[in-house]
Amino acid sequence: MKSLLFILLAVFISTSFANTEKLIFEASSSYARFPCNGNLNVPSLTPPYTKIKRSLIPSSKNSRGSPYLYNLSGLNDRSSYEVRISYPAITPADFYVQIISACQSSDGTLLYILEVFAKYTGVSHIQGMESRPVIFDLVLEKLYLGVLFYQVYKIVIAIVTVIGLGQFLLIPYVRRLITNKEIDSKI
After folding, report:
1. Which of 27, 81, 122, 161 has a C-alpha 20 to 30 A away from that of 180?
2. 105-153: per-residue pLDDT in tens?
3. CB pairs under 8 A, 24+ apart, for 100-106?
4. How crowded is residue 5: how many other Cβ atoms within 10 Å of its Cβ?
5. What is the pTM of this model?
């Protein structure tokens, strides 16, 4: 019994190959008291879902390094959003994400300025690891009801499909097998 439990745990435990930092916030016009005056020449992320791949060289442990800026544009007032950074777990770095300013666009949507920087942490036996760029994915995703992410429909469709298959195919099949075994054993 213990060996079966160990095998099941070994099969169902998954390993992680990435780290994720995330920031969940509610866009609010009270933070954007000023109109936007000109565009920053930085990459932009827009809802409901945007993903970009970037790289940066983490700063040393004692310095903050130069931050990278991103526009979070087209945000609606009183809507919730999630910003995620995913990067390889083998990278000895910590990422930091923060919103540093906000303004209101001429079309009534909000624009937030996101700051991203990384610090080199840990010890690596690989020479020059602290000067190698770290590739990361930056994602902006709209949250519905404050917790449901934009692409939740894919998960819902998968769950409904599995439950439907189980309810209408698997359970009747098992019932037929059981009733046939009971009939055969009585004969």
Report:
1. 161
2. 888 889 999 999 888 887 777 777 777 888 899 999 998 877 777 777 7
3. 100/69, 102/27, 102/31, 102/32, 103/32, 103/34, 103/35, 103/36, 103/37, 104/29, 104/32, 104/34, 104/35, 104/36, 105/35, 105/36, 105/73, 105/74, 106/35, 106/36
4. 9
5. 0.69
